[in-house]
Structures are given as structure tokens and as C-alpha cells.
Amino acid sequence: MSTHSHEIEEGLALLPKFDADGLVTAVVTDISSGDVLMVAHMNAEALAKTIETGEAWYFSRSRKKLWKKGESSGHFQRVSELRVDCDQDAVWIKVTQDGPGACHTGRRSCFYRAAALGQTGAVKLEFRDGDKTFDPDKVYK
């Protein structure tokens, strides 16, 4: 193992390995239930702001801009813990989700469909915990 790899995998310095677009993947879970709420991306500024403020900030790949979770919906995420994976190219953020949901579709989680195992051919999805918890048309104007 090279000194640099050892530093990244065993050291105490935050040394995020951003991809070619300057992003790391962020997996966001509910601090109480452990449920995965969403997956997003962070650039260096979003990561720094999240650590500094204790509120979740992300980078929108489609809009090409920094955004604070909840800035338009009012459904903020208060960060309880931020972990990095072994090679520091992904982060795991444990949050308290303020408001009824994290998903722009109006659901508590972005992971509301599942592929039943054992299927062949064209795979069909099934709704799991898919009830809407808020009306996105009223929240996102």
C-alpha cells in the first residue's frame, strides 16, 4: 500500500477523491430509521458548507449549481453525522429530515420502488412505501 493510499484509507485527514466532474456521491439516510432517503452529489464547496453549517448542501448536476436541501421546499436536512468510505470517493450523511419528505416527487424517500427478484425479461417495478407525503406542485413553485 502506498503512503498516499494509507493516508486516505487509514489516516484522519479528510481527503475526498472527487471524480472527473469534481463530485463525490452522497448517500443520505434518516438518523432515526436508517432508511435511505436520497442519493445526491457534492462538490468541494457543498461538502465544506455541509461540514461547516451542519445543514445538507449538494451540487445539482442538471442545474450546474450548489443548492441547500430545503431551500425551495422548506424540507431541510440537519446533519447528525458525515462519514467517508474507505477510499474517500463517497460520503454517507445521516440526517434529521425536517418536513414530510426528501424526494421531489412528494415522497419521504427517493427509493419508493423495488424490482421483485426472480424476474426475467422486462423487469417490472413495484411500489414500496410509495405514498406521497406532500404535494410537490404546492411545494416547488
Question: What does this entry show, briefly?
Answer:
With 141 residues, this protein is α+β, with helices and mostly antiparallel strands. It has three helices and eight strands; from the N terminus they run αββαββββββα.
The N- to C-terminal Cα distance equals 51 Å
Tell me the name of the CATH class. Answer: Alpha Beta
The description of the largest β-sheet is:
4 strands, mixed
Percent range of helical residues: 10-25%
- Beta-strand content estimate: 25-35%
Number of helical segments?
Answer: 3
Number of strands: 8
Given the helix and strand composition, which structural class is it?
A: alpha+beta
Strand order, biggest sheet?
2-1-6-5
CATH level 4 superfamily: Phosphoribosyl-AMP cyclohydrolase
| CATH topology descriptor | Ubiquitin-like (UB roll)
Q: What is the average per-residue confidence, as pLDDT, rounded to a whole number? A: 95
User: What coarse outline follows from CA principal-axis ratios?
Assistant: globular
**Radius of gyration, rounded?**
17 Å
Give the low-confidence spans. none
- CATH arch. level architecture: Roll
Q: What count of structural domains? A: 1
What is the H/E order? HEEHEEEEEEH
